[in-house]
Amino acid sequence: MFEERYAALKDSYEQLGLKEGASIDTVKATYRSLALKLHPDKNLANPSSTPQFQALSEAYERVMEHFLGSEINVGGKGSGFGPPNGFYSFGVGGKRGPARPDRPKQPAQSAGR
C-alpha cells in the first residue's frame, strides 16, 4: 500500500513538473499557472484539454494531501479550502435584515444638494 501511494505521489509531482520536496508555495504557484494554460475554457479547440486538466487537478490534490495530511480531502466537501459552511448565507445578495432599532432613520437626501 505504501509503495502504491508513494508511486502515485511521485507521478503527481512529475505531472506538475516539480521535483519531490518542492515547497507548498511552489506547488500552488505551479498548479495555478498550469491550470490557466490547460483549462478547457481556454482551449476550446483541444478536445483533450478536459482530461488533461482533470489529471492535473487530481495530481495537485494528491500533493496537497501529502502536505496537509491524508485525513483532509482536498477539494471535497468540508475540505478546509474555500468559504466555511454557511458563509454566503448572512445577507450577501439576499434580503436586508430589519433596521437596527438603536439607530435613528436618516432622511433621504435629494439629488439636488
UniProtKB/TrEMBL annotation:
Ranges of residues in domain J: 11-76
Entry protein name: DnaJ-domain-containing protein
Pfam families per record: DnaJ
PROSITE patterns (UniProt xref): DNAJ_2
Lineage: Eukaryota, Fungi, Dikarya, Basidiomycota, Agaricomycotina
Organism of derivation: Calocera viscosa (strain TUFC12733)
Domain of life of the source: Eukaryota
Region (Disordered): 90-113
Matches recorded under CDD domains: DnaJ (cd06257)
